[in-house]
Amino acid sequence: MERLFQNWQKEIAAAFDLKELKQIHWDISKGLSSGFSKGLIHLSNVIVIYDQLTKLHDQMMIKTFQLVEQGLQQQGKEAPVPFCWLILGSGGRKEQTLWTDQDHALVYLNPPEEREKEIDDYFQSLADQLVLALDDIGYPLCKGNVMISNPRWRNSAVKWKNTWTDWVEHHHLDHLRFALISADFRPIYGLMDLGKELRHWFSTFISKQQAFLSRGAEHNLVHQIPVGPLGQFITERYGEKAGYFNLKEGIYRQMVETLRLWSMKYEIPAVNSFERLSGLSERGLWKVEEIKEWEQALAIVFFLRLFHHVTSAAKLEFPDNFIQLQTLEKEQMKELKKAMKLVRRFQKYTNKKFTSM
Question: For the purposes of burial, counting CB atoms within 10 Å of the CB of 321, is it exposed (0-12), middle (13-18) or buried (19 or more)?
């Protein structure tokens, strides 16, 4: 697989337009499908595969951004101030599978007041073209509109700090959600030092917001793990997905939110779930055996997510998060159930600890 990833990186670097990037995206999908069929992708190396995938996604998205920039430059339009593009969601966490939707934000240097409209006009134009270009090569538009085409996710450094302060201080559910989404941002392109400074400021700021973290823990507990009193899976009851298990809403989301809350509270700079877990381990916040349980839980969920999305794409179906439990191997079912019980226990533990501080 390593040689394949290297070849894809070379192809992306040499790509001239969106059509070539879209084809490479499909080639990656086919290559991963072949990797699963040949047994080259498995539980023991799935984290390495995600790491390699992240490099490809970053490279493709950056190349797309540069193509849009070049188009604007040909019209005589240059970025009026230095900026940094920030990736959020699974991309920010380095946990993208294949055809994941867009989640991104933008920060730029604080402009003089008289240039604000000029600057916003440029970035609005760039953003409108960028989101369509990314959609064209296989990154669908975000249904929640968490993209730089939405002015909410495009600010100067000072305005970002003011915005986050407002979101944390107000108790509106949307503000809580926006602030939690922001916690996964990662600088990807542009003036990287600007993004890194903002990342450092956010980590320091959010760690001191106890009331906000308590609300976040309560919000996490609302999303219950679908395991019955006898340990049985609870699947979808209605609609075309009746009988299916929602891997994202049933466990992945709760895993991400639990690790994110602990990382925010203890100022762990990592955004990736495994790296956040390492940060908890290094600081002795969780027991050694708990860390091992979480590593196993993350591995099975990450493996099943990637396998499901790759096999769906191979059937030319748009990847969702609904899996048929009867298709899992016995050991996979056992590991998934263990993971769900673990995360349910930690949801309750997190809520108790964070709301009693």
Answer: buried
Rounded to a whole number, what is the distance in angstroms from the first to the last CA of the chain? 47
The Cα–Cα gap between 92 and 188 comes to: 9
Residues 6+ apart with CB under 8 A from 189: 61, 62, 65, 84, 85
Cβ(86)–Cβ(195) below 8 Å: yes
What is the full DSSP assignment across 7-65? HHHHHHHH--SHHHHHHHHHHHHHHHHHHHHTT-S-TTTHHHHHHHHHHHHHHHHHHHH
In the chain the domains, ranked by start, together with CATH numbers, are: 1-205 (3.30.460.10), 209-357 (1.20.120)
pLDDT in tens, 88-109: 999 999 999 988 999 999 999 9
**C-alpha distance from residue 22 to each of 15, 51, 342 (Å):** 10, 20, 39
> Do the Cβ atoms of 138 and 99 come closer than 8 Å?
yes
Cα Rg of the chain, angstroms: 21
Count CB-CB contacts under 10 A for residue 221.
18
327, pLDDT greater than 70:
yes
User: Could you tell me the pTM of the whole model?
Assistant: 0.95
